[in-house]
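Predict structure. Input: GTP cyclohydrolase-2, 223 residues.
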Amino acid sequence: MTENTGVDIGVLGSKSAGRTDTERVVNAPLPTVYGKFQAIGYLDHARGEEQVALVYGEIGTENVLTRLHSECLTGDAFGSRHCECGDQLASALRAVVAEGSGVVVYLRGHEGRGIGLLAKLRAMALQAEGLDTVEANLALGLPVDARDYRVAAEILRDLGVRSVRLMSNNPRKREALVRHGIQVAERVPLLIEPCESNITYLRTKRERMDHILPHLDAVAHGS
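Output follows.
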């Protein structure tokens, strides 16, 4: 299995082709517990945020196995069981290695579906009092989902990707990528076994945010 990314790094610091907002800054090898990736760093000038794409193998241009992963400090770094984010990130990285190629775009600025870390913690506190994740955001006067996938599409275009097999349970991610000019050839489910701490959160995502989570049918209500 090749470890070569197949990504033409070009001249680092040049702007993404045909774009003005997203600048590719660096390409560095990143050995991980899952495999050896290339970490390609970008600066989103429109929002002043730093972004990274983890690329594995020769990704090509069509039907690239891809995950757009929203930053989640509590889940990704702290192992929170309030959500399934950390497990999804690990599963996505394992999946692209098993596939032999693929991309995981880690989207900073997406914490708490775009409301930020402190606001997310405030929303979690309200959820502990009985509100669901949608009600908590609204009670704080915040949008339910404020994420923007423009930069993800620009990063994929910079990598030469025209169409993806998108690892996601969220149909809105698919719609957003298509709207920004990246075709989605297939949606690949990324289902994580629920636990007592996140089952209510997952049911809310399915019932109120249209996430496709058929595996929840096997979990009895009230568990």
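Confidence is low (pLDDT under 50) at residues 1-6, 9-17.
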